[in-house]
Design brief:
CATH topology: L-fuculose-1-phosphate Aldolase
Largest sheet: 8 strands, mixed
Strand content: 25-35%
CATH superfamily: Class II aldolase/adducin N-terminal domain
C-alpha cells in the first residue's frame, strides 16, 4: 500500500489540523476502513474554560467518517495521571474523562468508544484501523497460530476483551515490545502509533 502523505500539503498544518489531514488519508483507503470505521487521536495541550493550559486527548468522535472528518469531529478529553496496581504490580495509568460539551469546542460530539485504548497508549499519536487484510488474519478461530506464522517480525499480538481490559492489555503489550511498529489485536484490527502524526501513517513494515 502506497503512502498518500504529501510533505508540501502537510507543511502548513500542525496539531489537530494535521491529524485531520492524516485521518482523511487513512479513510481514503477503503481496504483499511469501511464507512465510520477506525479511529485516530492526538495528545496535545490546550486551554480549558479557566484559561489554564492542560494536557488533552483529541480523539475521533463516534459516527464520524475518517475520509471526510473535520476538526470539530475530534472531541477533547482531559487527563490526570495516577498510580494503580495491575496484575500485582504498580504502574502509571492515565485516566481520561470527556470534557463537558459546554466546555469543549466540539459541539457535543461523543468520543470514540475506543477512547481509553488511545489514552492508555503512551504515544502522542495513535491510529486504529480494521484493515480487510488484517481482519482476515485476526477474526478466525486460529488467530494466534495464523498471526505467529504470517506477521512481520516487528509486530506484536494480544488477545483482548472490550473496554478497560483491552486498553490495559494494549498498553502492556506495547511496553513489552518497544521494538514493535504495530499491534495486531485478535478480533480487533491494527493499532499504529508514533511521536508525530506522520510516523504512524507511513508504512514501516520490515
Amino acid at each position: 500500500m502506497r503512502s498518500r502523505w504529501n510533505d508540501a500539503e502537510a507543511a502548513a498544518l500542525s496539531g489537530v489540523d494535521l491529524l485531520v489531514y492524516a485521518s482523511r488519508l487513512v479513510g481514503a483507503e477503503t481496504s483499511l476502513v469501511v464507512w465510520g470505521g477506525g479511529n485516530t487521536s492526538i495528545k496535545t495541550r490546550e486551554r480549558d474554560h479557566r484559561g489554564r493550559e492542560i494536557p488533552v486527548l483529541r480523539v475521533k468522535g463516534s459516527g464520524s467518517d475518517l475520509k471526510s472528518i473535520q476538526k470539530k469531529d475530534f472531541p477533547a478529553c482531559a487527563w490526570t495521571t495516577s498510580a494503580r496496581c495491575s496484575s500485582g504490580r504498580t504502574w502509571a495509568t492515565r485516566r481520561w474523562s470527556p470534557i463537558s460539551p459546554t466546555r469543549c469546542r466540539s459541539r457535543g460530539v461523543r468520543p470514540s468508544i475506543e477512547t481509553l485504548l488511545h489514552g492508555f497508549v503512551d504515544a502522542p499519536v495513535v491510529i486504529h484501523t480494521h484493515a480487510d487484510a488484517i481482519v482476515s488474519l485476526t477474526n478466525n478461530d486460529r488467530a494466534a497460530d495464523v498471526l505467529t506464522a504470517s506477521t512481520a517480525r516487528t509486530s506484536s499480538r494480544s488477545t483482548t476483551a472490550a473496554g478497560l481490559q483491552i486498553s490495559r492489555e494494549t498498553a502492556d503489550a506495547i511496553a513489552a515490545h518497544p521494538e514493535a511498529r504495530a499491534l495486531l489485536l485478535e478480533q480487533h484490527g491494527t493499532i499504529c502509533w508514533g511521536a508525530s502524526v506522520r510516523e504512524p501513517t507511513t508504512p514501516r513494515w520490515s
